[in-house]
Design a protein that fits this description.
By secondary structure, the protein is mainly β. It has two domains: 298 residues, Tachylectin-2, Chain A; 181 residues, Jelly Rolls (Sandwich), CATH 2.60.120.200. 1% of the residues lie in helices and 45% in strands. It is built from one helix and 39 strands. Strands 25, 26, 29, 34, 35, 36, 38 and 39 form an eight-stranded antiparallel beta sheet that branches. Strands 27, 28, 30, 31, 32, 33 and 37 form a seven-stranded mixed beta sheet that branches. The longest helix is centred in the N-terminal third of the chain and has 4 residues. The radius of gyration is 24 Å and the shape is elongated.
């Protein structure tokens, strides 16, 4: 019998929720300030995943998210199917709870509808009762609402368009001697309402299941999953899902710092006592996370005993051979269509977007992907085209590759009045200004064309080496996570100051991105 090591998604896919549609499992994750947001991944076996689409092209309200709003945006969403329609319900902690709908998880998705306005409403999940009524359970963010550790319930219309009354607290973590109770996911099972919710915090917490005969309670509870000496700290919120054979599984995340919140898979047995039993049993109630997942049920479909599956986190390389951007790419804020030219000719052109302070943490036009949770090497080429005769140079322009979080490091080309140079830059987490290093001058004419091969190597501790052609520009720099997210690798172009440049002769041209990840199957 084959087994697959956890995590099954070793990259930053926070707060997973999932449903089964036919023989496929569809998963959604938090995307925070990134746009497009609400990534949707598909799997037939729960271990090999494809990033199919993003349900949210831009965040609402659009003007608010024209700038990077780190730590805001899309928090823990839920995905559910009801009466032939698929719903995505997500919270924006600064604006309220939104709903999107589609005939299928692959789309097309509607524009977001604001179901519940308000600050601090987080982690929503709908539940349709057997009598046709619908409810929404959600948590609270103290940073916005000055209260947390409570789960509330609101009755809503079955089409998820309007609330039908005020909310009420149905579970008070303080009364149960719990802390940071959040992330509820609601289900119906064997005459009970189940609410799965983590408590105790992201790094040190545990998973609780509450059950009652009615969505309003009263609830009894059990702790069903905790670290208990395993290597998986704080097994945190996720999704109960069944496969096509009837076996049950729990997808949850583990916080890995700079590598973000990676996704683990646990087997679930629905016990004769009416409770779920998750992971490896510790006693008759509690389980611990497993290091390896047995490929049972639908997970083993199509596999023989000689088929040794490798690591297959979604594809990150991109040959740019198809017009438009693949769903794997995201921006740091709602994008302007002029930011990128992607004609499908094997390269993309990024405009030199204005960067008033020169701080890439404030730069919406960084085109990024999650940093894989295992050593990786990223390679691309960068070319600054020759400027047309008489073309002005309003401000220094630069482009390159970046590893971005609370701190960042980048390498690439810089064009200024003295010519074109190979440079690198570093910004510390508490710094206001970059430390810029000029490694060599490639041209003394600022209008000249310049080209360089760039690579980013990241080791198992998140230390970064930046290389240009055969020169190491930065070695062993320690990357840092972002706000509620892991670090990411990105491509960018920027004009220092208040004016950018979007003409084709001013676009930084990036060639195919090739990514190698340790242990990845061919």
């Amino acid at each position: 019998m084959h087994r697959r090591s956890n995590p099954v998604l070793d990259a930053d896919w926070p707060d997973p929720d999932a449903i089964r549609v036919g023989e496929e499992i569809w998963m959604v994750a938090s995307s925070f300030n990134r746009a497009p947001g609400l990534p949707l991944l598909r799997s037939r076996d729960l271990v090999d995943w494809e990033h199919v689409t993003n349900a949210l092209p831009a965040l609402e309200p659009a003007g608010h998210y024209a700038l990077p709003r780190r730590g805001s945006g899309v928090w823990a969403p839920s995905i559910r199917e009801h009466d032939g329609e698929v719903f995505l319900v997500y919270p924006d902690p600064d604006h309220g709870i939104f709903v999107l709908r589609a005939p299928h998880p692959s789309g097309p998705w509607s524009t977001p509808h604001l179901l519940l306005p308000g600050r601090g409403l987080i982690d929503p999940c709908p539940l349709w009762d057997e009598d046709g009524r619908a409810y929404l359970v959600h948590g609270w963010a103290r940073s916005r609402a000055r209260v947390k550790n409570r789960l509330s319930l609101v009755e809503i219309t079955p089409d998820l368009r309007s609330p039908l009354g005020p909310g009420e607290v149905i579970i008070d973590g303080d009364a149960l001697d719990m802390t940071t109770l959040e992330g509820p996911k609601a289900y119906r099972h064997d005459g009970y309402v189940w609410i799965w919710a983590p408590a105790g915090g992201v790094a040190d917490g545990y998973q609780v299941v509450f059950r009652a005969r009615h969505p309003r309670g009263p609830f009894e509870h059990r702790v069903v999953l905790a670290q208990q000496g395993s290597s998986t700290n704080g097994p945190h919120q996720g999704a109960l899902v069944d496969d096509a054979t009837g076996a049950h599984w729990f997808l949850h995340f583990q916080d890995r710092g700079v590598f973000g919140r990676v996704v683990h898979l646990q087997p679930v047995v629905l016990g004769e006592d009416g409770w779920p039993h998750v992971g490896e049993p510790v006693d008759e109630h509690l389980g611990r996370p497993v290091d390896e997942v047995p490929l049972l049920g639908a997970v083993a479909t199509g596999r023989s005993d000689d088929d040794a599956p490798g690591y297959r986190e979604p594809l990150r390389s991109d040959d740019f051979a198809t017009p438009g951007l693949h769903p794997r790419w995201h921006w740091q804020a709602n994008p302007d269509p002029q930011w990128v030219r992607a004609d499908g000719d094997g390269r993309i052109g990024l405009a030199a977007v204005a960067s008033p302070r020169g701080d890439l943490r404030d730069h919406g036009a960084v085109l990024g992907q999650q940093l894989p949770g295992r050593p990786s090497v990223w390679r691309t080429t960068l070319e600054l085209p020759a400027l047309a005769p008489g073309s002005p140079l309003p401000a220094p322009e630069r482009a390159g590759v970046v590893v971005l979080g609370h701190a960042y490091a980048w390498a690439g080309l810089r064009r200024d009045a003295d010519g074109v140079s190979l440079v690198s830059g570093v910004m510390g987490p508490d710094d206001a200004d970059e430390v810029l290093t000029v490694h060599r001058r490639l041209a003394t004419d600022p209008a000249a064309k310049a080209r360089v091969r760039l690579s980013v190597a990241v080791d198992a501790a998140g230390r970064v080496t930046l290389t240009a052609d055969d020169d190491v520009l930065l070695d062993g720099w320690q990357s840092r996570e972002g706000h509620w997210i892991g670090a990411e690798v990105g491509l960018f172009a920027a004009a220092d100051g208040l004016l950018g440049a979007v003409g084709d002769d001013r676009r930084a041209q990036f060639g195919p991105v090739a990514v190698e990840r340790e242990g990845e199957a061919a």
